[in-house]
Design brief:
InterPro entries: Fatty_acid_hydroxylase, Sterol_Desaturase_Related. The chain has 283 residues and is mainly α. The protein is globular and about 50 Å long.
């Protein structure tokens, strides 16, 4: 095995996560403007693409499937909506009375850790519910319609479903008094984690697979099966999956032709058709 591939498989996930989050926190501590985070996210995507080519899990997933333009639109729309949501946070906080118990005296990395743990709980439960409530599933199915898994399509979601997950994850934090600088960092952390969850890197994380919800565990969730794919709902951690009894690991993660929406090989591939599909028919 070439040395570069070996190092990428072993070190990519922890270095990517800690490196980019560490850089984001450092920028925030030094007073960098929020628009520096999208630039950092662009660099993260470039690193992700490079790692996927050095050590691919499924080489064919590195090839476009006529989905590059659609995925770019999904990512641009959804990331822009998150930016607008964070910009609106001071207004929302002013309208909704909060508890004002946020640990503002903690180091910024500690505040981000609190935000990640709390958001992970809310988003995981919203995700779990989206596989059991038909109206939510019809929106969430857009995300499951992908025909390959690579870092960029972690950002592919129906805007309405993203809004539901965002509300479930962030509303409790707003009530606690989360400040805007932590909200920016949380939004960045979610994007970084989504890239890692859907990455086409053949990463090896050892025992961390039982607690960290990155690609080796999350690929099981994208199996085109209403039973075998109904697992591993966690965003950042697998803690809630262990409690819900929905955790799964193993070497039998899906390959080409095994992911997608179960029973819907005809699921729309275009962006506008995907936005309309939940309202046209059940999936």
């Amino acid at each position: 095995m070439p040395l570069a591939r070996f190092l990428v498989r072993l070190g990519y996930a922890p270095v990517f996560f800690a490196g980019f989050l560490g850089a984001a926190v450092t920028l925030a501590e030094r007073g960098a403007p929020p628009w520096s985070l999208p630039i950092l996210l662009g660099l993260a995507l470039a690193v992700s693409f490079a790692a996927e080519r050095l050590a691919p899990y499924e080489p064919v997933w590195n090839q476009p499937h006529g989905d590059a333009g659609r995925d770019l639109i999904h990512a641009a729309v959804n990331e822009a909506s998150i930016v607008l949501s964070v910009l609106a946070l001071p207004l929302v906080s002013g309208v909704i009375p909060g508890l004002d118990v946020w640990p503002s005296g903690w180091p910024l990395w500690g505040q981000l850790a609190v935000a990640i743990v709390a958001a992970d709980f809310g988003i995981t439960l919203a995700h779990y519910a989206s596989h059991r409530i038909p109206a939510l599933w019809s929106l969430h199915a857009v995300h499951h319609s992908v025909e390959r898994m690579y870092g960029f399509n972690g950002l592919l979601k129906h805007p309405l479903h993203q809004a539901i997950e965002l509300t479930a994850g962030v509303a409790p934090l707003v009530l606690l008094g989360m400040p805007s600088d932590v909200a920016w960092l949380l939004a960045f952390a979610v994007a970084i984690q989504l890239i890692l969850q859907h990455s086409n890197v053949d990463m090896k994380i050892g025992p961390l697979i039982y607690i960290w919800a990155v690609a080796p565990a999350h690929r099981h969730h994208h199996l085109a099966s209403q039973t075998e794919g109904d697992v591993n709902f966690g965003l950042f951690t697998s803690l809630w999956d262990h409690l819900l009894g929905t955790f799964r690991s193993g070497a039998d993660t899906p390959r080409t032709g095994q992911i997608g929406v179960s029973g819907r090989p005809d699921y729309p591939r275009g962006y506008l058709r995907q936005l309309a599909e939940p309202f046209r028919r059940g999936v």
